[in-house]
Structure formats: structure tokens, C-alpha cells
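Can't paste images in this forum, so I'm doing it all in text. The chain is below; anyone willing to post the predicted C-alpha cells underneath?
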Amino acid sequence: MLAVAVIVIACDQVTKALVDGNIARGDGEDLVLGIRLVNVRNTGVAFSSLQGAGALIGVIVAIALVALLWYFARNAGRPLIWLPTGMLLGGALGNVIDRIRKGAVVDFIKAVEFWPAFNVADISVTLGVILLLWVMERRDAAHRRA
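Text version of the structure:
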């Protein structure tokens, strides 16, 4: 779990540094198939909601991380549980690092005009949730069959 979290944090921070070093804040570059690399800041949470609610976001993230680690500790024996837990932990901490260092999260992938920009940490959290649900359902389905 910790190795996955460290890899996610490293990938997230490196990609954000590359964007910060190569694209001026507020600017963007076309990449491929309508995907743009942009350099924007997000003071909110998922999908740019709760903009400017710094203290509230800190509390929400802290509670979510404690709940995640508690769940992992109680279910550490589940096959593959370490993978989505590491993805969720790494993604959350990658964005927390931005909030501490820059006061906002660096987002840089803009897939479509109506969708907010996102980053590697956001991708990791999204895939981590999906994978966690799959891991939980997989084990529960096996118990129902038995």
C-alpha cells in the first residue's frame, strides 16, 4: 500500500512540476484528440466544488484518510485491498501537498470543455474508488456463492 502511495505521489508531483515549468499559469497547449494540457489552480475539491473552503476541505480530507486507513486495517487480509488503498492514499496526499505548498491544487488535464481540469492524483483517486468497490464486491460475491 505504501509503495503504491509513494509511486502515485511521485508521478503526481513530477507531472505537476513539468506543467508548472513549461506552461504559464492560465495558459494551455493542445495535446491530442481534443485533450489540452493547461495550468490552472483548484482551491476546491472534486470537480472544483467547494472553491475557497480551505479549512472545511482539510477536515473532509483528514476524515476521509482516517476512514480509509481504518478500513484498510480492518480488511488487510482481503486480496488486492492494498492496491486501491494505496491509490486513494497517494492521490489524496498528492493534492494535500499542493494545498500546503501552493494554497491550491495544480490541475493540468482538460479533456472536454464542460469538464473541469484534473491531474494524476485525481485519476488515482477515481480509479482507486472503482477498484476498491470491485475488490469489496468480488470478495462479497465469493462469500455469497459459498
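The chain has four helices and three strands. The first helix runs from residue 2 to 22.
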